[in-house]
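Thread: Newbie trying to understand structure tokens

Hi all, I'm a second-year student working on a class project, and my supervisor (Dr. K.) asked me to get a predicted structure for one chain before our next meeting. I've only ever worked with sequences, so writing a 3D structure as a token string is new to me. If someone could post the tokens and maybe explain what I'm looking at, I'd be very grateful. Here's the chain:
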Amino acid sequence: MDKRDIIIYVTGNVVDGMKVPKDKITNLMELRKYTQAVWELGYTPMCPGLENSGIAINGDVTLGDLYHGNIVKMDYCDGMFMTPNWVESSCAQGERDWAVMLGKPIFHSLDKIVEHEFEEKDDGLDIDVEGSGDCYG
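---
Reply by user tm_fold:
Sure, no problem. This is what the structure looks like when written as tokens:
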């Protein structure tokens, strides 16, 4: 199985315990660092904290809505990576609980992802990107 077929959900603290807005930027940079590291290991990362960071919380979109969407995404992942600051986040703790309930492996170090033997999955996809051109310009 190609490692890119393995989706790793990356989570950690984004806003819990935030004292000043720069804390959110620091936390997002931490998420980005680990999301990039998962990519560089050859896996496909999914990081809802980064994906949702540009969505405005207002009367139509609540944190509950975003959290619900994160849980839906988790079903498609093969494992979860917890950044070191995850314990500071009630949301990351809740995501971890859901991952455990779904039987997803939880990783606290990048090395453990590499060491883990993921189950083969037959999703019916045979992705061949050769010859697809430079689709990102």
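A couple of things are worth pointing out once you decode it. Strands lie at 7-11, 44-46, 79-82, 106-107. The chain has a mean pLDDT of 84. Feel free to ask follow-ups in this thread.
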